[in-house]
Amino acid sequence: AVVSTQSTGEYTPQYVSKYDVGLCINMIHISPIECTHGLFANMSKLLAFGGLLFTYGPYAVDGVISPQSNVDFHNSLKSRDPSWGLRDIRFLKKISKDNGLKLEMVVDMPSNNKTLVFRRLPPSSESDKLLLTLPNGNGLD
Which of 20, 36, 23, 33 has the alpha carbon at shortest distance from 96? Predict the structure, then answer.
């Protein structure tokens, strides 16, 4: 479970267990990019190693938005808020990698949407492994 405490109007998550699956539907394109960064940063903390994050929505592929209905949708989103819009899968791969996840599968879905499947990777370096063995990951307990 995730427990949140409120102080000064902001929520500070306290992670009390790990999850096998995360699901994000139609958020990435209709929110500022900071939300996408937050999604991957938090999934790297919430998902168990090997856990999966599923995202669903319209995406650009290698810089190309298609078909025309998705181009029109992207332009409509940008006109409402310049920080919104379809994100490129290549860009999401980089964000996921920076947060210890890897894009494993892209599935075409109805209405020109896709499901992206990311997997949380185990630690890759000795320093990452060491942090996992220390109380609270900081050695200060």
Answer: 36
Of 38, 34, 73, 33, the closest CA to residue 53 belongs to 38
User: Please, are residues 60 and 29 in contact by the beta-carbon 8 Å criterion?
Assistant: no
Q: Which residue, among 20, 46, 126, 33, has the nearest Cα to 88 in the 3D structure? A: 33
- Output Rg (C-alpha) for the chain, integer angstroms: 17
Q: Is the pTM of this model over 0.85?
A: no
Q: Which of 34, 92, 103, 95 is nearest to 63 (CA)?
A: 92
* Helices and strands in the chain, H and E counts: 4, 6
pLDDT at 11 over 60: no
ω before 67 within 30° of 0 (cis)? yes
